[in-house]
Amino acid sequence: MKCSCMDSSASYERLPNVPTYFELSSMFGRDSEDKDRSTEKQEELIFYNDDNSYQTAIVEKNLCVSDLCQLLALKNRVAKDVNWTIVEHWTDLGLERSLEDHEDVLSTYHNMESFARNTSKRFVFRKNFIKYEFFPNPQQFFPVNMIDLGDAEDVPPSFPKSSILHLDRLELNSAL
Hints:
two-stranded antiparallel ribbon, alpha+beta, five-stranded mixed sheet, Ubiquitin-like (UB roll), 29% helix, 176 residues, 20% strand, single chain
């Protein structure tokens, strides 16, 4: 199995290394308030629900999103579920981003504050049912027509290509 986008005849040009906003701010120095915030060990943050109710939680340094979701599920008296997530919502801009389970919530908060101090933003605690949908249903995100199954000629045409992908993945995992 080979992804057709990885064809050996394809070529690409590398993008230049452009410093990010955060790299630039560290090079030119941030104001003392930002430096004080980056060394804080904990902070009390507000996490809104979709109905605009909210819970406060003391977020410590290195607290990951998955652990915070379990805590907020208890505080909101809802069932623990892997589909709960924290969403970073920039209300003025109308932008949202689901934080990944391994992300450090406090550092994300500090980055949000240092990036746009006077912009309206908040964290939202909500369910995201497609969070892990890739694992049980990969063909939804990686269509079969993007896969080159050149060595699968001996498979009957009635056999679904998505099953071939699953079998190839199992073979790869067993080889490791």
